[in-house]
């Protein structure tokens, strides 16, 4: 029995060697038959441009200096034509320095010259007024100025209240109130042209309004004939457009003694 075991060992070794060789050849043939992966084409790079943006927040009326501006990479496909690009205006930072912000900028916002104005020696208010508009002030109090909740850049209705004599009753007077101007932009309260430190109220003595020349004449006449009050408009209503006589709502309240009548027209 021992002789048979010793005699079979070389045969098994030969068979094992042949099996291993056949397996290696089969593995080689299988690997060589797999398709070679195709080379991936390089991805196209996104085209960008350098756009001038605000480095930090720039409030309304603040003078823009070079340290408040910086160049930022921007996708060329989304860069508006109104943006300032470095390839076309490499010295734009120096050119814009000294301008006044007609509207506020937030950090990272692209700078547009439509929101800037050169003072050229004029005062701040004259610089930020749109063409054709006038700035005129009127006295206010907490009672006539919505309790101080009217802030710069809000929109208001201007109400005139005056005393009229009752022609039917001698010596009797009535109070007539009507909206003479609507959807008017407030430029400043006293000498504050912008909200500061997130304040919710500004109790001032004067409000500066942005008016057309004909509206300025209307307000000047109204100030001599009665009391002026400002009614704060809702933000949703304030976006409806500027003063339009065709859409103006007039509220007339007339009081004679104990009798009261109210009419509204649109």
User: How is the main sheet built?
Assistant: 5 strands, antiparallel
Provide mean pLDDT, rounded. Answer: 76
Which class do the helix and strand fractions yield?
alpha+beta
Give me the strand/helix succession: HEEHEEHEEEEHEHEE
Strand content: 25-35%
Radius of gyration: 39 Å
**C-alpha end-to-end distance:** 123 Å
Q: What do you see in this structure?
A:
The structure is a single chain. By secondary structure, this protein is α+β, with helices and mostly antiparallel strands. It has five helices and eleven strands, in the order αββαββαββββαβαββ. It has helices at 2-33, 92-96, 124-128, 213-225, 235-238, and strands at 48-54, 69-75, 100-101, 116-117, 134-139, 155-165, 173-189, 206-211, 227-232, 250-256, 259-265. Strands 5-8-7-6-9 form a five-stranded antiparallel β-sheet. Strands 1-2 form a two-stranded antiparallel sheet. A two-stranded antiparallel ribbon has the order 3-4.
Short recap of the structure:
By secondary structure, this protein is of the alpha+beta class. The protein contains 5 helices and 11 strands.
Defining key terms:
266 residues; disordered N terminus; elongated; alpha+beta
